[in-house]
Write a structure and sequence with these properties.
Blueprint lengths: L12 E3 L26 H16 L3 H13 L4 E2 H5 L5 H20 L9 E5 L5 H5 L5 E4 L8 E5 L5 E5 L8 E6 L1 H18 L12 H5 E12 L13 E8 L5 E8 L13 E5 L7 E8 L6 H12 L12 H7 L11 E9 L4 E4 L5 E11 L2
Parallel strand pairs: 1-9, 4-7
Antiparallel strand pairs: 1-12, 2-3, 3-7, 4-5, 5-6, 8-11, 8-15, 9-10, 9-12, 12-13, 14-15
Helix pairs in contact: 1-4, 6-8, 8-9
């Protein structure tokens, strides 16, 4: 593949490097003691069961043809549950029922409500299309979260497990079962902000604006951004990332704003989003923090909000800016520091006047920013 795949869907709590306007030195973020790798997560287990069920269902020629056509029309992924809808036969009905249950189970595991179809399927690589069109029997696997895996478990139409080399693109067509992380991320960001607000990490009601404030507000705009990674597995899907910008609100209480970054999908790729990251009219001090993370498919947004709020609510305004990145990182579950971390990068003390390239504290990414005046119409 020409681009290495990022770990999926990320959460970002924003904080930019100390002395960001100086030599660009990065402040190392503290790393907790690594925890032993956890067993397969709920979402991974659900996806694996769906992959096995789908593989067995592809013994049905009508379903196999429908899947081939659907993935050709939607290379980024076709929703699984609607695929079986409308087809007659016990196999199609069984698959539709199983994937509908799995959709609800995935949403529950991520702390979300019923979002409708979440599971999707795609061909692992476009080069497999020719063999698939020629009638080759496909395998079904899941878009794995462990970039360091040496083998990938796949299923054939007889339900047998086939081990695939994670470092070599298979010659046999492989379908990957994944979740629609863009849909999950949108719902997760909304839930995260609601839960943080309900727990007191909320925007304060703005005071009556001054004449200058009424004319607009200063923001920090991301002009370019890149995340680094050395892995290039064929079985990975695109990432879904977001940021949580943290600082002190106008009322002197800790404030967290979630910022979706759906364009940040692949490592080793420079993106030019021109995205507003911080609205400085919401902050008391001229500094904010940022932590970038990913939704690896297993991110539970409700648990994340609870963990972050529990720590940040203990921090009080002392009349001066206090960096919040370390407190946020300390709140993350231990499982997010294992081989497949949800934590990606962090930046300390982003100022309203920050400009130019800012390297992340972890050394895994950078962004260029500039002040931006947003005027009223």
């Amino acid at each position: 593949m020409s681009q290495s795949r990022l770990r999926r869907a990320v959460v970002a709590l924003t904080a930019l490097p100390l002395l960001a306007l100086g030599a660009g030195q990065a402040v190392a973020a503290p790393a907790p003691t690594p925890a032993p790798a956890a067993a397969a997560s709920k979402v991974t287990a659900i996806e694996d069961e769906v992959a096995r069920t789908l593989a067995a269902s592809l013994a049905d020629p009508a379903l196999r043809e429908r899947l081939r056509s659907a993935t050709a029309a939607a290379p980024a992924g076709a929703e699984l549950t609607p695929l079986a809808a409308g087809l007659s036969g016990a196999t199609a009905r069984g698959l539709a029922a199983a994937t509908a249950r799995a959709d609800r189970a995935v949403a529950t595991a991520k702390g979300l409500g019923d979002l409708g179809p979440l599971l999707r399927v795609q061909l692992a690589d476009p080069s497999m299309r020719a063999a698939l069109d020629a009638g080759a029997a496909p395998l079904v696997a899941i878009a794995g979260t462990d970039e360091h895996a040496r083998t990938v478990r796949a299923y054939d139409t007889a339900g047998r497990v086939r081990g695939l080399d994670a470092a070599t693109l298979p010659t046999r067509p492989v379908y990957l079962v994944d979740i629609d992380t863009a849909k999950a991320l949108t719902a997760g960001i909304d839930l995260l902000q609601r839960e943080l607000t309900a727990r007191g990490i909320a925007p304060a009601a703005p005071a009556a604006p001054t004449a200058v404030q009424a004319a607009g507000w200063w923001g920090t705009k991301i002009t370019s951004v890149e995340v680094n990674d050395d892995e290039e597995p064929w079985f990975k899907g695109a990432a879904e990332m977001f940021s949580l910008v943290s600082g002190f609100g106008l009322d002197g209480k800790v404030r967290v704003d979630s910022v979706a970054m759906p364009y940040l999908q692949y490592d080793g790729t420079v993106y030019y989003p021109n995205q507003i990251l911080v609205n400085w009219s919401n902050y008391k001090y001229n500094l904010a923090d940022v932590v970038l993370m990913e939704d690896d498919g297993d991110t539970n947004y409700l648990a994340l909000a609870q963990a972050v709020a529990a720590v940040l609510l203990t921090i009080a305004d002392q009349g001066a800016y206090i960096p919040l990145v370390n407190a946020v990182l300390a709140a993350l579950p231990a499982s997010w520091w294992t081989d497949d971390p949800d934590y990606v990068e962090s930046w300390y003390t982003l100022a309203r006047t920050s400009t130019g390239r800012l390297n992340g504290a972890r050394g895994n990414g950078w962004m260029t920013v500039e002040p931006y005046w947003v005027s009223q119409l």
